Amino acid sequence: MHHVEALESRLAPLYARLAAHPLYLSFETVEDLQLFMQTHVFAVWDFMSLLKSLQRALTCVDVPWTPSAFPESRRLVNEIVLGEESDLYEGRALSHFELYRLAMQQCGASTVAIDAFLRGIADGESWETSIADCGASPAARAFVGETFRVIATGETHRIAAAFTFGREDLIPDMFRGFIRDQNERLSGRLATFRWYLDRHIEVDGDEHGPMALRMIAELCGDDPVKWQQAGDAAAAAVEARIALWDGILASLRETPAPAPVY
After folding, report:
1. What is the tens place of the pLDDT at every residue in 77-113?
2. What's the domain of life for this entry (predicted)?
3. Which domains are present in the chain?
4. C-alpha–C-alpha distance, residues 229 and 235, integer Å
5. Comparison of pLDDT for 260 and 192, the residue scoring more
6. How many whole angstroms separate alpha carbon 127 and alpha carbon 35?
7. Hey, which bits of the chain come out as E strands?
């Protein structure tokens, strides 16, 4: 796993920038959180597109079925899909995207843009057309664009690296404390969002994170070119997350907070 360790060392400065981002110090009201969620939900959505790209590449979804060439990775990606697409929350199966949207509704964040985006896709529009027309923020549009640029390469090791390292949510204690305090003040209306954050910390650290590292190791093997390309994709993904945070921070500073939607 020395290749993984080298890649993680390369990403360490970017992770430090992400963890210390001033966005986390900028939340003062629930309206700030609503504005954050209205952009961040697009990152939650396109995470599933990365994951589904991996599932299509590493497993067989065709009929007649044939076994794929990556026995370890196909098991890992199917386990991750199960948790991300059909987790259990209060006794019912929900994807983490659906859970996040539920959390938005409970705290009063508008789902107008993300709902319009998904309707456009369901109606047959390209993601490019739908995201341009739905009212998504510039930061959300840029972030989704970077994700689909990686997907368009069709190179599984690059996609796996962006998936594994680009979506590492380093959630500072100060942000979790803000959510806890606001949840108490709002009589539990952030309970689902708190569960979402805690669940991601749990599964990313104990389950999905280690699985994804093993998947990258199998896909790259001992090929130094693939490891370099994986590192490039991972770094670009983390930089895209930093840019997303920059965009949300700018909107918090420049745009009046939206009126709560209850």
Report:
1. 999 999 899 999 999 999 999 999 999 999 999 999 9
2. Bacteria
3. 1-254 (1.20.910.10)
4. 10
5. 192
6. 22
7. 87-89, 92-94
What's the CA gap between 226 and 228, in Å, rounded? 5
d(CA 257, CA 262) in angstroms, rounded, equals 15
CA–CA separation, 251 and 172 (whole Å): 21
Vertex 185 angle, CA 184 and 188, to 5° = 45
Q: What is the DSSP secondary-structure string of 127-162?
A: HHHHHHHTT--HHHHHHHHHHHHHHHH--HHHHHHH
| 20 in Cβ contact with 244 (< 8 Å) | no
Q: Which residue has the tokens 């669940």?
A: 199
Q: Which amino acid is at 1?
A: M
